[in-house]
Write a sequence for this structure.
C-alpha cells in the first residue's frame, strides 16, 4: 500500500473546518414561551445526549467525506501480484494476414498458434481478435466467448496488403485511451523486415501493453519476384511500344529465369535473363501486340519458390488509334509545323497524328473531325473555315492559337474576337528579349514546365485579357499565354509564335512538355498508368462530377460499392491484387492492374535483437514464458485504488446530505 | 355568517363593541329567531276563576261571550345579573396562531355583555383578576354600562400569576345579588382548588359557568426537537422532549380537563371548554341555555 501523490495529504488541514463548526461554535437553542409548565417534566439529560450523538454522527460523516477525498487525490495503490491481476487484462490476438503470409503455411501456422493461445486463456479473461494488414481490422469485440473468438481466427484469409507494425502501434496507442485494463498483445506474424516503420519510435507500444511475439518463421527464405513492370497505359502503335520488367531475387543464388509476357492469357513473348545472386535483372520486350480496347497483361517468371503469388506482375493497356490534330499555318511557314510535330511525337508516343494544312487548304475542312485545332501565325482565314471553327469551339471544340508576327497585322484575334492592342518587338528595344515574369503553375499546360525559365521572347502581341485567364505573363506583364472559355469549348492563346523567329521556345527543352500537356489538355485525354499498388487510392471523380454514379468491379467480379457510395465516393482503395474494371464519373471505362507492394516479396525477417528491443519497449516477457502463461509470483504491480476511495466518498457524501438535510429541516421547524 | 364568529376574523376587527355586535348579530341570525327576544309580557294560559283571585286578572271579554269567569295568566319575566370573572394572568397571553387566549376571552366577554345588555336588558358587570382583584365594574343595566364594560375589557392586559383563592374571597362580598356568574380562565390550577374556590358562589344561588379557554397547542403541543420552554407566569425554564410532549403531556392535559369538568358538574357548576381556533357560537349557546333554563 502506498500513495502515488502523497503531497495531497497536506489537505488534511481542511478537516479542522467541520471540527470548528461542530465543536467550537456553540449551538444555541431559542427558548419558546409556553403558558404553563404545570404538566411538563424535566427531560433535559436525555435530549442533550440525543443531540450530542447526532452532532457527532454528522461531524464524523463530514470528516469522512473530507479525509477520503484527500486520500483519493493522494492516489493510493496497493501492490498486487501479477497473478491476481491477470483476470483484469485484455488478451489481444493479432494475426498478420499481409501478402507475405501467403508463403508456405505461414498463415495456417499463425492461426493454429493463435487458437492455442486462446485455448490456454482463463474462461473469465476477455479476448479480442484482429487482423493486421496495412490497417488493423477488428474482427471481434472484447469477449469471453471462445466460440466467437475461434470463428474469428478461422475467418482470417490471406490478403494482399503490406503489413505495418507502425499502424499496429498507432492503433494500440489510441486503444489504451479507452481500454483501461492492461492489454496482452499476441502478434502472430512472419516478422517481415519491411513491415517495420521507418522510425522505430513509431512502433513503441504504450506501457500498459505487454507484447508477446509469435514468429511463424525463424529465418529469411529465398524468393523470386517480378519487382516491377514499366509499360505504357495506352498503346497506339504496338511495334513501337516497349515493356520493361525487373526481376528480383531475395536471398537467392545466381540463376537464369525465364520471363514471359502474357496478354489476355496468351504468352506473347519469352526472354531468359541472368539474375545475379540476391540481385536484380531487367528484361525488355520490344513490342506489345495487343488488340484494340483494353487488354489484361502480365509479366511472369518461372520460380517454384514458396511465394508464387509475386511471380507475376499485372498491368492493363488500352489500344486505340492516334487522335487527329489539325495544324493550320501560312504556306510560307515551315518551321512551326515542324517544331510542333516533333515535340508532339517525341512526347506523346504516337498518341496524336498531326495533319498540317496551309491556310488556303482549309476551305473544305471540318474542324469537328479533329481532336483539337492549332492556328499558327495565320494572317487570315477563309470565312467558311473561320465560321466553322467558331461553331466548333462553341460546341465544345478546343483550339490553340499562336498569334506570331501575323498578329501585328490583325485588329482582332481570330475565333476569339478579342482586340489586339499592340505588337511588342523586343528585339528592337533595349533589352532585346524578355523572359517569363510569372506563370500559373496550376494550369495543366505549364504545370511541368518549370515556369519556362530561360526562354527568350523577342516578339509578343499585347491583347485585351479582360475575359481571359492569364496563364503566363512576360516580365513586362504582357500576357503570353491566355486561356479562354467560349461556349462549351476552350481557346488557348499564345501571343508569340511556335517558330524560332519570335522566340527560342521551340529550341528549349520545356517546349516538349508544354506541347505534350497542351495537347492532352485540349484533347481531353490524360496519361493513364498501366498498373497500381495494393492499398493505393483510385480517384473516381473530380470535384465537379458530383452525384454521378461510378462502377467498380473488383478482381472477384463483385461490386464492392453500395449505391450510396457509388454516387458519392471520391476515391476507392484498391485492397486486392488483380484487375479492377471501372466506369468513372466522366463516363470513361478503365481497367487497372493492381499488384501487391513489391516490398512484401522481400521475406527478410527482423533481427532478434530488434525484436527484443521492441518487446523491451513494451515491457514484454519472452514468448515461451508468456505462452506458458505462468506469471512471476514475486512480481508486484501497483494497483490504484482511488476509484474505490471515491466510491466511499460518494457514499459518505450521500449519507451526510441525507442526515444534514433532515437535521436542518428540524432546525427550520424549531425556528 | 359562520365566518363572523371565527376568532381569526374577529381579531382583524378593531374595537370590542364592533366585535361583540358582529358576534351576537351573527349568532342570533344563525338561530333563525327574531332578534326581539321576548321582552314583553307573554300570554301563558287561561285558568278558571276561583274565589279570592284578583278580579283585575279576569278576562272580561271572555266573560261577556261565555258568561264564565277566566283568569288570564302571563309568563313571568325577570331580569338577571351577569357577572363575568375574567382571568388576566400572564398565561392568558399564550398563542400559537393569530388569536391569543386573552383576545379570545375578551371577544367572549364582550359578546356576552352585548347579548345581555342590548338584547336581554340584563345588568352586567366585570371583575378582572389575576393573583388579586385588578378591576371591578359593578353590574348595572343603565345607559352607558356596555361602554364601561368594554373599556374594562380593553384595559385588562395580562400580567402576573393566577391565584383563585384571594380574589374569590373578595367576589363573595361583591356578589350579593343572585345572578349568572361566568368565569373565563385557562384554569392552570388543580381542579379541586378551582372548584373549591368557585363553589361558594353557587351557594349564594348564582348560576356559575366555567369557560375553560385553551390554545390548541396547549391541548396537543407540537415539538420537533428537544426544546427549552419558558413558563409565562413564573419564567421558569425547562427543557422538554418531543416524546414527552406528544404522549405524557397530552394525557395529563386530558386528565386535567376531564377532572375539572367532572368536579365542576358535580358541584353544580357548568363547564365549557373553548379552544381558541374554534368559533364563539358554542360559548354563546351554552350561555343562553343556562339562562333560559334558570329563568
Amino acid at each position: 500500500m502506498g500513495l502515488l501523490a502523497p503531497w495531497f495529504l497536506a489537505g488534511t488541514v481542511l478537516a479542522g473546518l467541520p471540527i470548528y463548526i461542530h465543536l467550537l461554535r456553540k449551538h444555541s437553542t431559542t427558548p419558546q414561551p409556553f403558558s404553563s409548565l404545570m404538566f411538563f417534566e424535566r427531560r433535559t439529560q436525555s435530549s442533550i445526549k440525543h443531540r450530542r450523538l447526532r452532532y457527532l454522527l454528522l461531524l464524523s460523516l463530514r470528516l469522512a467525506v473530507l479525509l477520503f477525498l484527500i486520500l483519493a487525490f493522494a492516489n493510493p495503490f496497493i501492490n498486487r501480484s501479477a497473478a491476481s491481476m491477470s483476470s483484469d487484462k485484455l488478451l489481444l490476438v493479432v494475426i498478420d494476414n499481409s501478402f507475405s503470409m501467403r508463403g508456405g503455411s505461414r498463415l495456417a501456422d499463425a492461426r493454429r498458434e493463435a487458437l492455442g493461445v486462446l485455448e490456454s486463456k482463463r474462461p473469465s479473461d476477455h479476448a479480442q481478435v484482429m487482423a493486421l494488414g496495412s490497417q488493423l481490422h477488428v474482427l471481434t469485440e472484447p469477449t469471453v466467448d471462445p466460440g466467437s473468438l475461434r470463428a474469428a481466427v478461422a475467418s482470417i484469409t490471406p490478403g494482399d496488403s503490406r503489413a505495418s507494425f507502425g499502424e499496429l502501434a498507432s492503433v494500440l496507442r489510441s486503444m489504451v485511451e479507452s481500454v483501461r485494463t492492461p492489454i496482452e498483445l499476441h502478434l502472430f506474424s512472419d516478422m517481415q523486415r519491411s513491415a517495420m516503420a521507418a522510425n522505430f519510435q513509431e512502433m513503441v507500444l504504450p506501457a500498459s501493453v505487454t507484447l508477446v511475439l509469435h514468429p511463424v518463421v525463424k529465418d529469411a527464405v529465398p524468393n523470386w519476384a517480378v519487382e516491377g513492370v514499366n509499360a505504357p497505359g495506352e498503346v497506339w502503335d504496338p511495334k513501337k511500344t516497349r515493356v520493361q520488367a525487373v526481376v528480383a531475387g531475395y536471398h537467392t543464388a545466381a540463376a537464369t529465369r525465364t520471363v514471359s509476357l502474357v496478354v489476355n492469357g496468351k504468352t506473347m513473348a519469352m526472354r531468359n535473363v541472368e539474375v545475379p545472386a540476391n540481385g536484380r535483372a531487367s528484361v525488355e520486350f520490344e513490342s506489345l501486340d495487343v488488340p484494340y480496347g483494353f487488354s489484361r497483361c502480365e509479366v511472369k517468371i518461372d520460380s517454384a519458390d514458396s511465394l508464387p503469388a509475386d511471380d507475376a506482375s499485372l498491368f492493363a493497356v488500352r489500344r486505340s488509334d492516334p487522335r487527329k490534330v489539325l495544324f493550320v499555318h501560312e504556306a510560307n511557314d515551315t518551321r512551326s509545323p515542324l517544331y510542333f510535330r516533333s515535340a508532339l511525337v517525341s512526347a506523346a508516343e504516337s498518341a496524336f497524328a498531326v495533319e498540317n494544312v496551309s491556310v488556303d487548304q482549309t476551305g473544305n475542312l471540318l474542324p469537328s473531325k479533329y481532336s483539337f485545332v492549332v492556328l499558327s501565325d495565320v494572317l487570315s482565314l477563309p470565312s467558311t473555315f473561320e465560321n466553322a471553327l467558331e461553331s466548333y469551339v462553341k460546341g465544345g471544340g478546343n483550339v490553340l492559337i499562336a498569334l506570331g508576327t501575323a498578329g501585328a497585322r490583325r485588329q482582332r484575334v481570330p475565333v476569339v474576337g478579342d482586340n489586339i492592342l499592340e505588337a511588342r518587338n523586343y528585339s528592337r528595344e533595349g533589352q532585346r528579349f524578355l523572359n517569363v515574369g510569372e506563370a500559373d503553375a496550376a494550369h495543366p499546360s505549364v504545370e511541368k514546365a518549370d515556369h519556362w525559365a530561360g526562354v527568350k521572347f523577342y516578339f509578343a502581341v499585347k491583347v485585351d485579357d479582360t475575359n481571359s485567364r492569364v496563364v503566363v505573363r512576360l516580365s513586362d506583364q504582357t500576357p503570353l499565354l491566355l486561356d479562354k472559355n467560349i461556349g462549351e469549348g476552350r481557346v488557348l492563346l499564345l501571343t508569340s509564335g511556335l517558330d524560332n523567329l519570335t522566340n527560342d521556345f521551340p529550341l528549349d527543352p520545356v517546349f516538349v512538355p508544354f506541347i505534350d500537356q497542351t495537347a492532352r489538355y485540349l484533347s481531353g485525354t490524360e496519361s493513364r498508368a498501366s498498373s497500381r499498388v495494393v492499398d493505393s487510392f483510385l480517384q473516381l471523380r473530380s470535384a465537379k462530377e458530383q452525384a454521378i454514379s461510378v462502377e467498380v468491379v473488383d478482381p472477384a467480379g463483385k461490386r464492392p460499392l453500395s449505391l450510396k457510395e457509388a454516387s458519392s465516393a471520391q476515391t476507392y482503395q484498391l485492397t486486392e491484387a488483380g484487375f479492377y474494371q471501372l466506369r468513372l464519373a466522366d463516363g470513361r471505362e478503365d481497367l487497372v492492374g493492381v499488384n501487391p507492394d513489391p516490398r512484401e516479396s522481400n521475406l527478410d525477417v527482423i533481427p532478434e535483437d530488434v525484436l527484443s528491443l521492441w518487446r523491451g519497449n513494451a515491457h514484454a516477457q519472452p514468448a515461451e514464458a508468456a505462452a506458458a502463461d505462468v506469471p512471476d509470483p514475486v512480481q508486484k504491480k501497483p494497483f490504484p485504488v482511488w476509484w474505490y476511495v471515491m466510491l466511499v466518498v460518494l457514499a459518505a457524501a450521500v449519507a451526510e446530505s441525507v442526515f444534514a438535510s433532515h437535521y436542518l429541516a428540524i432546525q427550520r421547524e424549531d425556528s | 355568517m359562520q365566518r363572523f364568529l371565527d376568532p381569526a376574523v374577529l381579531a382583524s376587527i378593531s374595537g370590542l363593541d364592533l366585535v361583540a355586535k358582529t358576534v351576537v348579530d351573527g349568532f342570533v341570525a344563525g338561530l333563525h329567531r327574531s332578534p326581539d327576544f321576548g321582552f314583553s309580557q307573554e300570554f301563558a294560559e287561561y285558568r278558571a276563576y276561583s274565589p279570592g283571585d284578583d278580579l283585575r286578572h279576569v278576562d272580561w271579554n271572555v266573560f261577556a261571550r261565555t258568561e264564565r269567569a277566566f283568569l288570564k295568566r302571563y309568563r313571568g319575566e325577570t331580569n338577571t345579573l351577569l357577572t363575568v370573572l375574567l382571568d388576566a394572568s400572564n398565561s392568558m397571553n399564550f398563542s400559537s396562531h393569530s388569536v391569543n387566549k386573552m383576545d379570545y376571552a375578551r371577544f367572549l366577554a364582550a359578546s356576552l355583555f352585548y347579548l345581555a345588555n342590548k338584547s336581554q336588558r340584563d345588568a352586567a358587570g366585570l371583575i378582572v383578576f389575576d393573583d388579586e382583584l385588578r378591576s371591578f365594574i359593578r353590574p348595572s343595566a343603565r345607559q352607558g354600562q356596555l361602554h364601561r364594560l368594554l373599556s374594562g375589557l380593553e384595559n385588562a392586559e395580562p400580567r402576573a400569576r393566577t391565584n383563585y383563592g384571594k380574589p374569590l374571597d373578595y367576589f363573595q362580598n361583591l356578589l350579593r345579588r343572585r345572578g349568572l356568574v361566568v368565569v373565563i380562565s385557562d384554569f392552570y390550577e388543580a381542579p379541586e382548588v378551582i372548584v373549591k374556590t368557585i363553589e361558594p358562589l353557587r351557594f349564594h344561588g348564582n348560576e356559575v359557568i366555567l369557560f375553560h379557554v385553551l390554545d390548541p397547542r396547549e391541548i396537543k403541543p407540537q415539538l420537533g426537537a428537544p426544546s427549552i420552554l419558558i413558563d409565562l407566569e413564573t419564567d421558569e425554564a425547562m427543557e422538554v422532549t418531543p416524546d414527552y410532549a406528544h404522549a405524557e403531556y397530552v394525557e395529563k392535559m386530558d386528565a386535567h380537563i376531564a377532572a375539572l369538568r367532572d368536579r365542576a358538574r358535580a358541584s353544580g357548576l357548568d363547564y365549557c371548554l373553548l379552544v381558541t381556533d374554534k368559533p364563539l357560537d358554542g360559548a354563546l349557546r351554552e350561555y343562553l341555555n343556562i339562562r333560559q333554563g334558570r329563568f
Q: What stands out?
A: The two ends of chain B are 29 Å apart (CA to CA). The interface with chain A takes residues 91-94, 101, 186, 188, 215, 218, 221, 224-234, 236-241, 243-245, 248-249, 252-253, 256 of chain B (CB under 8 Å).
